[in-house]
Amino acid sequence: MKYLLSILLLCCMASVNAQPKAASVVPPLRPIDSSYSFIRYKADTLYHASSHAAADRFFEKWRRVATTHQGHLSIVQIGGSHVQAGTLPHRVRCNILRAYPDLVSDRGMVFPYSAARKCNNPVDYGVHRTHPLQLTRNVYKEHDVPLGLCGIAVTARDSMAAIAIVSRDTACPFASSKVVLFGHSEQNVIPRLGLADREVFPSYVDTRNRRFVFNLHDATDSFCIILPCRAGQAFSLTGVYLANGQQGFSYHSIGVNGAAVPDYLRCPYLTNDIKLLRPDLVVFGIGINDAHGADFDTAVFRRNYLQLVDSIRSVAPDCCFLFITNNDSFRRSGRRSYMVNNNGPLVREVFYRLADDTGGLLWDQFYVMGGLKSMDKWRLAKLAQHDRVHFTRAGYELVGDLFSNALFSAFADYIATHPSPNGQ
Which residue has the higher pLDDT, 222 or 197? Predict the structure, then answer.
């Protein structure tokens, strides 16, 4: 066990980065390659529902944090495989934090996806494990483990089980002084953290909320989760929260490959977990899996989404919701053939209704990328994968920049039309 842990802990190095101060309250727009004729660049804006109250609260708090350097703005993006892969949300995260380099707050909620077999991980951190772990995802018909906001769990049953989470992003580095593990053990297994020079036990255990809280003396960007299960014991990890206690901006990303809206509704600890994140804005990108089949029902889709919104509002009543319409996609029609998914325009209309229903915001990804059949053009431009559902890394980064610019432009419009009382 010591030998295995030493291999994992070689990756663990503390880092705290001094950053210069940001120059402007409104972030500059990201440079966009305008050479793609199929992209509707002029449509890269946010749609506002007729009720602006929730959006105004969000933008006003954004201004307050950016100008006073006091407070914490929390953004949570929830989706499927587009989010689990991590490239798109991390692009948005970095675009925000590059604009406010002195206001880098918590890295927030993460999950060691690749601790399980055949499970991909976000790009900004690596995961190493000593032993394969049992996987449970919210897309499964039966859940062996009650799931939370992350919609996924890995279960250890071995005395030598350990997972290292290692930061590997130099563009947007994070160092955490507090780590919260979400999980549960029927046999009262207590996890530990392995740092570069020592092992530490939880500062306290919150049994009711299934949380194990570690307050660290020194901030670290990498650590090892030790799950010491004896014979007949098990521990299921359902999430990891990385905090630094600083003022500023957090951009959380939660995604599960293949997840649809009902899959998140079947996570009993979702609202319990989201209370810790205290979201000011929830970005919804769920829907590509709901609308993939020929039996897609717009009424059921809308009803499920409104139920999910209501559950989050029960613990975050002042939260604003931003809906991202599905990207255009194709369905497999044979071994090597594909057909356009005609549900794209139908689900797009539902998203507009959802924005109106909730007094929220909407980014029309479907229209901006070119509308129906445009995914094949993205594929030919090497921006989308062969399956015509997912993007390439370059494609996800482009989508992330387009979305960031729509968000930044909406904030700039708010600043221009809502003068601050103190003139800032």
Answer: 222
Task: State pTM to two decimals.
Answer: 0.93
Read off φ and ψ for residue 364, nearest 5 degrees.
-85, 75
Q: Which one-letter amino acid corresponds to residue 276? A: L
The stretch 285-305 carries a mean pLDDT of: 96
For residue range 89-137, list pLDDT tens digits in order: 999 999 999 999 999 999 999 999 999 988 999 989 999 999 889 999 9
**Residue 366, both tokens:** 């479907």
Residue 217 has a CB neighbour count (10 Å cut-off) of 9
Q: What is the CA radius of gyration of the chain?
A: 21
- Domains of the chain, each with CATH number or no CATH: 32-105+247-424 (3.40.50.1110), 110-245 (2.60.120.1360)
Give the pair of three-digit tokens for residue 2.
């010591």
Among 1-15, 311-325, 326-340, which is the least confidently predicted range?
1-15
What pLDDT does 12 receive? 47
List the one residue out of 388, 306, 383 whose CA is nearest residue 344.
388
Residues 25, 63 contacting (CB under 8 angstroms): yes
Is residue 355 a contact partner of residue 47, using CB atoms and an 8 Å limit?
yes
Is 254 exposed, middle or buried, given 0-12, 13-18 or 19+ CB atoms closer than 10 A?
buried
Query: Would you put residue 52 in left (φ > 0), alpha (ψ -120 to 50) or beta?
Result: alpha
Digit-coded pLDDT (tens) for 172-182: 888 999 999 99
> Could you tell me if 79 and 254 are in contact, meaning their C-beta atoms sit under 8 angstroms apart?
yes
289 C-beta neighbours (distance < 10 Å), count: 21
